[in-house]
Amino acid sequence: MNRYPIWKYLLILIIAGLGLLYAAPNLYPPDPAVQISGQSSALKIDQNVLNQAEKALDDADIAHFGGEVQDKSVLLRLKSIEEQLPAKRAIQEALGHGDYVVALNLAPTTPEWLMNMGASPMKLGLDLAGGVHFLMEVDTNTIVKTNMEGYVSDVKSKLRAAKARYRSVDLVDDREIVARFRTGELQSLAMRTLRKEFPTLQLREAGSGNNLEVRATLQEQEIKQLEDYAVTQNLTTLRNRVNELGVAEPIVQRQGRNRIVVELPGVQDTAEAKRIIGKTANLEYRMEAKPDALVTNKEYFEYRNERERAAYGGAWLERDIIIKGDRVTDARVGYDESGFPQVNITLDSRGGEMMHRATWKNVGRRMGTLFIESRFIPETTVDEEGNEITVQRRTDDKKIISLATVQSPLGRQFRTTGLDSPAEAQELALLLRAGALAAPMYFVEERVIGPSLGADNIKVGVTSVQIGLLAVVLCMLIFYRVFGLAANIALAVNLVLLVAVMSILGATLTLPGIAGMVLTIGMAVDANVLIFSRIREELRNGMPPQSAINAGFDNAYSAIVDANLTTLIVAVILYAIGSGPVQGFAVTLSIGILTSMFSAIMGTRALINLFYGGRRVEKLWI
Question: What number of other Cβ atoms are within 10 A of residue 355's Cβ?
Answer without folding.
Answer: 23
